[in-house]
Every structure is written in structure tokens, then in C-alpha cells.
Design brief:
alpha+beta, 11 helices
Amino acid sequence: LCHIVFAPSPQPQLLSGEHRAFREGGGGGGTVTARSAKLARKRTYSYSVSSGGAGRSKHVLTRAVRAWLPRAVGLLTEEVVLCVCVGAGVVLPSLSRDRATFLGASALLVLACSSFLRWMRPRTADLCAIVLPDSDDEDEAGAVAAAAEPASPLEIEQIIRVLSFNVEGGGSLRGAGLQQLIEVILTTQADIVGLQETRMEMDDPSGGPHSQPYGHSVAPKLARALGWYFYEQPLPHTHPASWANAIISRFPMSLPCQDGLGVRVETGQASVWLFNCHLPDYCYQPYQILGIPYGNQKRIYTAAEAVREANRSRQKGINMIRAALRRLPERADAIVIVGDFNEPSHRDWTEEAVQAGIHPMCVQYPSIMALEREGFIDTYRQVYPSVVEYPGFTFNPHMFPGAPDFHPDRLDYVLVRPDLSDVQVEDVQLVGMNDEEDYHVVTPYPSDHRAVLATLVLKPKSRQPSRYASAEDEANFVF
């Protein structure tokens, strides 16, 4: 029983600073605008990438102290609780007159301490998930960098380029490797990258949704090659909103959210909460509708069946994302959600798409719609509203669109919601292997998903309506 109650907590690697309380002031909401942009010719870049990375610290003693001090604090906390229990075990017999009273009081004390440690462990685990770019251990769970306090409120514009990138088996498939992953990031000049499927995938023999990852995550190697920070999201492969996910960033990252789905990124001038998600691909409704074999999923024939099956597959994950958004410990200039949702958008499977022969029927897919109700904007459709002119397929660039066992779709998204600042969607670009469809081209391309790059401009918040403003002014104000 003592071994269960007082088992060591996950080992924290670095404490980024005091966890600030949620700030009530600052106003809520913001405006999102978009500047229309058209696909242009690909850009050609030439890079020389060092495998050693940048910013490697030489101060070994300083690094050791920063790494072990939080661990010592965590262990000391558990030892204090243990001493309290032992002390109570000595004091209680002298206060109790019979054995039954003593055993009952001891049991209650043990349960109380067990509950306290179980409550503390998720919070301690949050501190051990982020790794600095100068770390040498490839098996560490992650690192947190001490971040500079952003200006609050934002006083100048801040441009941030966010990339959603499913790296399919850690980028080791399709004749590619780490160099191609680096090329994608450098070519796009991304600042923050949400990575999905950072490990190899073991097939599920039952043909179901529980394929397991194996091997090491590519995120540490990728971050060190770039000299970036990384956050290995500490979630199991059975999690309904994550599958071998990680976040890497050229900017420092502070404490992650309690649920492990996101982390706060500090640019020095602005702050952004970045959520990185991977929703289940089983059952996959486009293939169910078209009768394309995929595992043991059943065939469906109507839009209502597609919505019901989509909710069955992904509603739990979407609800966990929504719950995590409501539990953020503090606010930021904007909240961004990236990821492979494995579900098309209701803005793509439209009547216009049906008439153009792009999709077989009109379906109000629920996942993106649910996040739009939370105030998020689909950045790609904000810039390219026409699904006929710009279908924006992200799955699968290696497949021929007319193949009988394949249907192209847009499954990867960058969603944004303003908070303390306004947000302008400057541009959205796709990364792939086709000169005609992709803004950035990398060959051999290392994934079965195109990467999606969104350029966001964070701006000082526009004037909020006064509490004494007229009803007409209130009605014209856009949050």
C-alpha cells in the first residue's frame, strides 16, 4: 500500500517559473480578418543544416542544477507527506483508546494522503514534458524553457507562422528522412510546428482503431537539428485527441495546459496557446460513403449516417479539446489549434462541391463546426472560401485522385481564435510534392499528408465598446 501511495512522481526536467494565476482583466474576444491571397510559384531555398543544432549550452553545472532542482523539490514534497503519516502513526495510538479507532483513523489518513498525491501527480507531470534544445538525452519526455514575459496588452504587431504537419511514421517512410522534415520547416520559415504521428505505427490486427506507436519520437532530433524547443505531449495512443504528438518551436514555451493537449508559447512580444491534436481515423466516413475498404468499418449511404458515425469516432476527442480550452490557467493574445482531424469540413462537402464532382454528397461534418461554435476560424477557408477553386486537399499527395481505392480530402487544419489581441490571417499555404497544387515543394515528400502553414498577424486589440456606448455602437462592434 505504501508503494502504491508513495510511488515516485514523473521526474521533472526544468521548472519554467511561477505559474501565474488566471487574469480576469483584459477583455475577451477579438476580431479576425483575412487578406485574400492566391497560390504563387514555389520558392526555391538552399540550406545547409547542421545535425548538431544551435544554441548548445556549455555550462554543464548550470544545466545540472536547473534539471535536478525541481526533481529534488518534488521528491522532498513526497517525503514530507510520508513523514506526516509516520508521525501520525506514532501519535494516534496514544490518543485512541481502542484498536478500532486507531485503524479507522489510520485508514482515513492514508486515503487522504493518497488522494493528495494523485491530485498532485498530473501537475508534476506537466513540468516534465518540455525539453530544451541543448539537452543530450534523446529519451527524455520533454523540456520547458523559461520564457520572457510578453507585453500585455500587445503594443506592436507580431507575425507568427504556424505549421500543422503530420509526419507519418516520424518521416522515415516514403524514401525520406530527417533531412526532408527539416527542409519542410525551413522552406516554410515556420515559427511553431504541431507534429502528429512522430513515431512508427504498428498495425492493429483487428482492423480497428487501436494501432500502437513504437520506436522513438522524431521530435527531439528534429528540434535539436533546428536548435528549437520541443514539447513531447504526454498522452497515450488511445487518447481520443492525440497520437504520438509533439510541438516544436523557435520561441520558448512555458507550462503546458493540464490536459497535455497544448502549451503556451512566448514570443517575447506576444503569447499564444497552441493546441496540437490528432483525432481517430477509424471509422473514416468518406470511405464508408464511397464503399472503399478500410478495416472492418461498415458501409453508409446518407449524410445523417455520416454525421452520426463522425460523432461516434471523434466527438469524445472534440469534447476534451473544448474542456481543455475552458480550463486554461491564463489567457494569451490568441489560441491556435492545429492537427490532423481525420475528418473533412462541413465547408468542403457542400452542394457546390457535389455539383463540381469533388465530393459525392453534402455532409455537415461536426468536428470543425463544433470548434467554430467556440469562436475558432478555419484559416484556409478564411483565405480561400471557394471549395471548387481551392479544394485544399491535404490527404494524400502520393495518391492519384482518380484511383478507385482513394478519395482526396482536406483533413489537416490551422484554426485560430483571438483573445487578448486581434488576429489577421495573412496567408495560408500548402506544402507537398506537386508544383501545380503546392506553394512549397519538397521531394521526396516525407508524409501522406500535406503540411498546412498559416501566417497570422497579432495586432493590438481594437477599441472595446464603452459601458455607456449606444445600442447602435454595441450592435456594430465585432468581437
